[in-house]
Write a structure and sequence with these properties.
Layout: H1 2-16, H2 21-80, E1 89-96, E2 113-116, H3 119-131, E3 133-134, E4 145-151, E5 157-164, E6 167-172, E7 179-180, H4 183-202
Antiparallel strand pairs: 1-2, 1-4, 3-7, 4-5, 5-6, 6-7
Length: about 200
Amino acid sequence: MKNSSGFDNSFRELNRIPRPQKQKQESFRKIINEIERKPALERNIFPRFLTAAAALAACLLFAFLIYSEDYMNRGSNGADMIEIGNSIITQTAISLSESEKTFSAEPNYSAKSAIVQDEKWEKAARNAIDSAQPADVVFSSEPLYDVQIMLKGKEPIKLKIWVEQGKVFFSPTASEEVYKVSTEESALFLEYLKAISESIQKTP
């Protein structure tokens, strides 16, 4: 009631000002429109705030889910990576591969495999394997070599080695993942494998 009386007094004071009637009506209309608009604005402020807050929360949740999925994927891929790292290589068995489904590089000193204990070979093998990255490839040929790297205090790494178009790939026998050796490390790694395989073939 107090507010209403205040507005009425304002209207009366405004009405006493000597102005054309049309101008007075326009002024009254503007005041009334402003009064009617304020409650609507006050009603809309809170819903707009809620809408903005909900949108922000949704964006944060979406970003969190993407980050979590990416983190889990990277963690999963990292767990599957083949790496020698600082592990000590005790010896390596190398043989010519007979087929994709068999593995013949066993440390039994047979004529079909060679046992290698050499620092230069170990460095080449370590660099090649640690540089490898997962690859999506369909092979057009059978694997050329079987390699078993024995590590001190750890399970051996058994690999099937492919060479296609000058690129070196390997796949652990314990999984179906395929890795591509980096170009920088593949040349020396392949040179050693060729030399060792030739010595195996020459062995009576």
